[in-house]
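Homework help thread (please don't just give me the answer)

Our assignment gives two proteins as sequence + C-alpha cell strings and asks us to describe the second one. The first is just a warm-up. Here they are:
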Amino acid sequence: MSKAQPIRITTAGRSRAEDIAIRQKRYAISMSIRSLCFIGAVIAGLAGVTWLWPILIAAALILPYIAVVMANATNTKSDEMNLMDSPYGPRQLTSGREQQQLHQKGEDD
C-alpha cells in the first residue's frame, strides 16, 4: 500500500512585509531610471543630440505613473498546489442543501 500524500488546503503567498519590501524595491529602481533619464536628457541636450533628449524627457515624465502602478500591484502569484484526489473522490465543501440532495440521492439508490 502506498503512502498517501498530504492534502494542502491553503496556499500562502508572501508575507505582507516581504511584499512591501519587493514593491518598494521596484519603485526605487523605477525612480532611479527616471533620474538617469533626466540626467541623460541634460547631457544629450548639452552634447547637441537633438533627437535623444525629448525621448528621455518623455520617458522621465511617464515613469512615475508606471512606477506607482507597479508599486501598488499586489502579488497575484501563489505557490498553489493543486489538491490531490483521494481514493474516495475529490474533496469539496458543499452547502447544506447540496449535502441533503446527495444524502437523499444515496437513499433513493
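The one we have to describe:
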Amino acid sequence: MEDLLGIGLGFVAIILTFSIPLSAIWTNHLRKSQKVRAQIVKDEIELEKLRYNNFLVETEKMRLDLQSKQASLLETADPVILDLQKQSIYEAQTISR
C-alpha cells in the first residue's frame, strides 16, 4: 500500500515537473501567435490605406480626363450643345441647393 502511494506521489511529482516547462512553451506559442495576428492586422490596415489612396488618385485622374474631354468638346461643339451644357450646369446647381 505504501509502495503504491510512493509510486503515485512519484508520478504526480514527475507530471508537475514536466507540466511547468510545457505550460511555458504553450504560453510562448500563444504570445507569438498573437504577435503574428497583430502584424497581419497592421498589414491589412496599411493595404486598405494604399487601396483608398489609389482610389482617390484614380478618381482624380478620371475627373481631370473628363474635364479635358469636355473642354475639347466645348471648343468644337455647336451652339445647341453649348446651351444644353449650360442648362445642365444650372439644373445641377439648383438641385444641390
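TA reply:
I won't write it for you, but here's a hint about the kind of observation we're looking for: The mean pLDDT is 86.
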